[in-house]
Amino acid sequence: MKNILVTGGLGYIGSHTVVALQQAGFSVYIIDDLSNSQLEVWEKITAITKIQPVYYNIDLKDLNAVSVFFQSHKIDGIIHFAAYKAVGESVEKPLMYYRNNLMGLMNVLEAMEENKVDNFIFSSSCTVYGQADAMPINESTPLKRPESPYGNTKKMGEEIIEDFVNATGKNAIALRYFNPVGAHNSATIGEVPNGIPNNLIPYVTQTAMGIRESLGVFGNDYETRDGTAVRDYIDVNDLADAHVKAMQRLLEGKNKSNLEFFNLGSGNGSTVLEIVTAFEEANNLKINYEIKPRRAGDIVQAYADYSFAKNELGWQPTTPLQASMQTAWKFQQQLGEVKE
């Protein structure tokens, strides 16, 4: 049984990926400092899979603690999620984002080299494309300077990994996701933001729950179908499946270069108001919303061409948007009130 380290494994995408890895027969270790996650997710993962992953609370900025972990465990592959991820906050606190996201990455890579771990998957983002000139976005779309420090940490992260694999001969895959939505079918795990949500769907579900008075729609003057921004919403369970397939590709030596990039999206662009309508129709609810000014760092539109992932990883999304809207709401109802 191969041992996989998942950093940020108690977070939203990380926890779903831990479940998928365990169900695929991997032994999973989690490192998470709980800066944007909750310890109870560890028990919820165990409840779903009936297997308790090994968990450590380690700050990845602490190189000594990271080194001690790697010296103590034989790891066959790493999936690196751990990062701060709020676009707006990154504009306000850029140094915090650069320090956390890049130092954590570099410490993991350094320990990986010292302890002869060969396989690394990076949680990247479509933000590396900035505002692309043409849609849909494929892996050949030129990269631009991202619109936010958060996005820039992903772009810089990819560049660091590229230099690292060129120097060491290690193998890496960067998965560039679009906008994850939905929750596990059990409604046991899902997206739990700390405080006011930065992502659309938790904002929608908390508004439906009455936790928020209304949903803020940031900008209705974009050049889109209804004036609101267009994004590609991909179910979190489909994303988790892609991580398992990517790790299997590396472990089986099927990668065609030391660093590969894959776009993970649904292939469809939806406006914010279309998502609100989809949520309302899927759950027979009405959402109060108000138009607010554009948010710093946001782009007009982004949606994926995932054909490369389909051809190379044998992956494609299978969860309809309606189902994602239903699991997101089911999870929010199970969650109830949220901590500020």
TrEMBL record:
In the record, what lineage is assigned to the organism producing the protein?
Bacteria, Pseudomonadati, Bacteroidota, Flavobacteriia, Flavobacteriales
Gene Ontology molecular-function annotations: UDP-glucose 4-epimerase activity
Which species is the source of this protein?
Paenimyroides baculatum
Q: Which residues form the NAD(P)-binding domain?
A: 5-324
The entry's family comment says: Belongs to the NAD(P)-dependent epimerase/dehydratase family.
Q: State the GO CC annotations.
A: cytosol
Protein name in UniProt: UDP-glucose 4-epimerase
Show the catalytic activity.
Answer: UDP-alpha-D-glucose = UDP-alpha-D-galactose
Spell out the subunit comment. Answer: Homodimer.
Name the enzyme group at the top EC level. Answer: isomerase
The catalytic activity of this protein is classed by the Enzyme Commission as: 5.1.3.2
Specify the pathway.
Carbohydrate metabolism; galactose metabolism
Keywords, A to Z, come to: Carbohydrate metabolism, Isomerase, NAD
**UniProt xrefs under InterPro entries:** NAD(P)-bd_dom, NAD(P)-bd_dom_sf, UDP_G4E
Question: Domain of life, per the record?
Answer: Bacteria
Cofactor(s) needed by this chain: NAD(+)
**What is any one GO biological process for this UniProt entry?**
galactose metabolic process
